[in-house]
């Protein structure tokens, strides 16, 4: 029962923190990108021939992106592992027979600090990409990824819609 309460509480807290972050991102944005700057996938998209051609990425830029990507991915792996450890410690403290509210709060704050570090590391990749590509190519990149995201969402919705009637039909039989 304690575990269910813990999970429910954490979901509410994380949801509230996320909502505040999302609301904050939309404020004071003269560029009109909202959180679009966060929509650059953290994979080596510049290795695809179409991307190389579309964004005119030079071999020197590819090398810079590769070098920074490796650095950021290594940091992210470490930070993600640390966050998992933080959450485990918090869960164990929450389930402990010697429950200590102040210790739980301290562990939660440590997890939030780690989560912030993780977001900062991801954003550093976005900043470096912007620096390497320049304003015009970076904006084109954002638009491209936004279009790809919208296309993927539409495709997923279509797949769900085609699945639903099949499920209904199968239930009726």
Walk me through the structure.
The structure is a single chain. This protein starts with a helix and ends with a helix. Helix content is 80%, strand content 0%. The chain has helices spanning 2-25, 49-54, 59-95, 101-172. The chain is built from 4 helices and no strands. The chain has a domain at 59-133. Helix 3 packs across helix 4.
Q: Helix/strand-derived class?
A: mainly alpha
Order of helices and strands: HHHH
Instruction: Give the % helix.
Output: over 70%
Number of strands: 0
Main sheet attributes: strand count, strand direction, barrel closure: none
- State the low-pLDDT regions, or none: 15-34
Kindly report how far apart the N and C termini lie. Answer: 40 Å
Range of strand content: under 5%
Shape: flat
Please report the number of helical segments: 4
Radius of gyration using CA atoms only = 21 Å
What is the average of the pLDDT values? 79
Question: What's this, in brief?
Answer:
The chain is an all-alpha fold.
Describe how the helices and strands are arranged.
Layout: H1 2-25, H2 49-54, H3 59-95, H4 101-172
